[in-house]
Amino acid sequence: MTPDITAVLDHYHARIRDERAQPKGSLDLDQRLLAVGPETGQLLNILARSLEAPTILEIGTSYGYSGIWLGAAAQATGGRLITMEISPEKSDHAAEMARRAGLAEHVEFRVGDAVEMIAAMEERVDFVLLDLWKDLYVPCLEAFVPRLNAGAIVVADNVRPERELLAHYVRAVRSVPGMASVTLPVGSGLEVSRYR
């Protein structure tokens, strides 16, 4: 990691600590960072860096924390990150943080409805991070599966057995022909899948 990337991650980590110190309900859910956290970020970086010049798709940019980890992997491998977000304000914030981290040339920001944007994509994809509103996991999965290259890795965040919407996603991803998948107790729970 370059000093610029480390400085940006440190900024995010300070925000995470500040938000956790706030009383519950003091911040609107949409104003919270809701970041995957450093352990998950490191795992995402390791997995994405295991691929050669990957096209990485992040569905749910939010304020850009996981995009720094994925953008760093894109920079290190000669790949690129396409990150999608419905909120222009969040996407703008994430783009500024990527610029500060020295990753802007490796990251493309797209704003709009994720399912529609995935359906309109021309690119094929080697790595996917799925981290948006949970009712959109399965529609997004159905949209991106036809764009996966052989050997693609798919990571879904916030996979906990007690969350029925996520259990529905786990059943759906495991039923994709050629997909191998496992739930890992990392961060808020990850479903990590590999295609063919």
Structural account:
- The structure is a single chain.
- The chain has 196 residues and is α/β, with parallel strands linked by helices.
- Helix content is 42%, strand content 22%.
- It has helices at residues 3-21, 38-49, 65-77, 88-100, 114-120, 137-144, 164-174; strands at residues 55-59, 80-85, 107-111, 125-130, 148-157, 179-184, 190-195.
- Helix 4 (88-100) links the parallel strand 2 (80-85) and strand 3.
- Helix 5 runs parallel beside helix 6 (137-144).
- The radius of gyration is 16 Å and the shape is globular.
- The relative contact order is 0.14.
**Cα end-to-end separation:** 31 Å
Category from helices, strands and their pairing? alpha/beta
Query: What percent of residues adopt helix (DSSP H or I)?
Result: 40-55%
The fraction of residues assigned to DSSP E strands is 15-25%
Number of helices: 7
What radius of gyration results from the CA coordinates?
16 Å
Largest sheet: 7 strands, mixed
- What string gives the helices and strands in order? HHEHEHEHEHEHEE
Shape: globular
Spans of at least 5 consecutive residues whose pLDDT stays below 50 are: none
Number of strands: 7
* Spatial strand order of the main sheet: 3-2-1-4-5-7-6
Kindly report the average pLDDT value: 93
